[in-house]
Amino acid sequence: MAVNKIIKYLLFTFNFVFFVGGITILSFSVHARGNRVDYHITEDVLPAINLLVFVGAVTMILGFLGCCGAVREDRCLLTLFFVGLLALLFMMLAEVVKEHLKELLPLSGAPKDVQEAFQLLERNGFCCGFSVGPLDWGNSTAVPDSCNCSDTSRNCTALGGRQVYATPCMTFLMTWYDRLSLTLIALACGFGSLMILGMVFSSVVCFQVCVKKGSVI
After folding, report:
1. Average pLDDT of the chain?
2. Is residue 126 a contact partner of residue 154, using CB atoms and an 8 Å limit?
3. Got any disulfides in this one, which pairs (predicted)?
4. Which end of the chain is more exposed for a tag (fewer CB within 10 A), N or C?
5. CA 57, 62, 63, 64 torsion: positive or negative?
6. What is the pLDDT of residue 85?
């Protein structure tokens, strides 16, 4: 049984696109990391840039392995490509889950620039705290004046003898974020679908290589 040429060339094309995409991500993230001032990259954003460098490098390597495995019909390279894609997919899913489940530290213990950014957000968004509300700051005495609710028509709550915004700023951010969410979700689903498609192609080609060489009955 010969290896299906259509699937073989589809796998090669997929991996070539994957390889170019990895180079693009790696180049952009390395450039952004080296020009932190120009891109206004703070210490809080730097871990995300480092993650992009890692993802770009791994994507480039996996794309190269996949291309070589498809052209040479090498079972080991195809298996390595499949395992690498699977590991990358699990790593990305784990990172998403980690971000959603990560407990917030009290904002009162956050760096000064983070506190100032939140206070600016609270004044403009008529909100307080991040995901829970005023208690995200730790306790009632730590809640800043930016949370003071002077307009009683808004969602206010009594805290420590004063009125503060009861709505967490996450609600305000999600309202703004909804305009971009569909696009971002589509991109994430598209990338995940490509990874799964690549694993399917590599599995099929690997199986056909095994059959061709008599390793599978």
Report:
1. 76
2. yes
3. 128-147
4. C
5. positive
6. 76
Please name the residue that has the structure tokens 């930016």.
Answer: 146
pLDDT greater than 80 at residue 32: yes
Quick one: tokens of 112? 């000064």
Residue at 191: amino acid letter:
F
Beta carbons of 127 and 165 less than 8 angstroms apart = yes
Cα separation, 69 vs 199, in Å, equals: 13
9 residue type, one letter: Y
Residue indicated by tokens 């004046």: 145
For residues 9 and 94, membership in a common domain is answered with yes
pLDDT at 65: 84
Instruction: Quote the domain boundaries for residue 36.
Output: 5-102+182-212
Give residues with Cβ within 8 angstroms of 71, minimum separation 6: 12
Whether 39 and 32 have beta carbons less than 8 Å apart is answered as yes
- Domain total for the chain? 2
For residue 164, pLDDT over 90 is answered with yes
Closest to 24 in 3D by CA, of 75, 59, 66: 59
Question: Are residues 96 and 17 located together in one domain of the fold?
Answer: yes
Per-residue confidence (pLDDT) for residue 191, from 0 to 100: 65
pTM strictly above 0.70: no
Q: Are residues 89 and 13 in the same domain?
A: yes
162: three-class secondary structure by DSSP: strand
The tokens describing 123, both together, are: 């004044």
